[in-house]
Amino acid sequence: MSEKTIVLTENAPAPAHVFSQGVKKGGLFQVSGQGPMDPAINEYVGAGDVRAQTRRTLENVKAILEAGGCSVEDVIMFRIYLTARADFPAMNEVYGDFIGKNVPSGALPARTTVFVDLPHEVMLVEIDALAVTS
User: Fold this and answer.
1) What pLDDT shows up at residue 16?
2) Could you give the 3-state DSSP secondary structure of residue 89?
3) Cβ neighbours for 96, distance < 8 A, ≥ 6 positions apart
4) Which DSSP symbol is given to 20?
5) What is the pTM of this model?
6) What gap in Å lies between CA 49 and CA 58, rounded to an integer?
7) Is 74 helix (H, G, I), strand (E, B) or coil?
8) Tens-level pLDDT at each residue, the chain (134 residues)
């Protein structure tokens, strides 16, 4: 049985509760749900702007992937949580641009999008990722 490896980077927000930024085990790498917090200033950004929040959130996920020796190309599944159905088109546009720039193979990861309440009122989006390590 393989051991769990915890991944932690200062290039993404520190976990605020009882969880890790990322966990690797047996060829899988799960990145915890990230929100639109800028790790440099330790504050949520893009209040009311789902595009800005989606960009920051995806950059946080990418930073954790890279800290674990992976890239967005290695992601097999993204889960996206939105607080408002009306924000889907704007989020999807930013997501599509991000994937286009970070998945050069064109082999798109799977994705699920759900509409929920999130832990902090300012958050319009939260995203987690599951990658396969090489």
Assistant:
1) 79
2) helix
3) none
4) -
5) 0.96
6) 14
7) helix
8) 689 999 999 999 998 779 999 999 999 999 999 999 999 999 999 999 999 999 999 999 999 999 999 999 999 999 999 999 999 999 999 999 999 999 999 999 999 999 999 999 999 999 999 999 97
DSSP one-letter string for 34-52: E-SEETTTTEE--TT-HHH
> Quick one: pLDDT at residue 62?
98
**Residues 6 or more apart whose Cβ sits within 8 Å of residue 82:** 50, 88, 91, 113, 114, 115, 116, 124, 125
What does the pLDDT read at residue 111?
98
Locate 121 and state its tokens: 């009122």
Total length of the chain = 134
> How many Å separate Cα 29 from the centre of its chain?
12
Q: Which stretches within the chain are classed as H helix?
A: 50-67, 88-102
> Please, what is the angle between helix 88-102 and helix 50-67, to 10°?
30
| Owner of token pair 């759900």 | 114
Dihedral in degrees, nearest 10, Cα atoms 102, 108, 110, 111: 60
Grouping H, G, I as helix, E, B as strand and the rest as coil, residue 7 is strand
Report residue 85 CA to chain centroid gap: 19
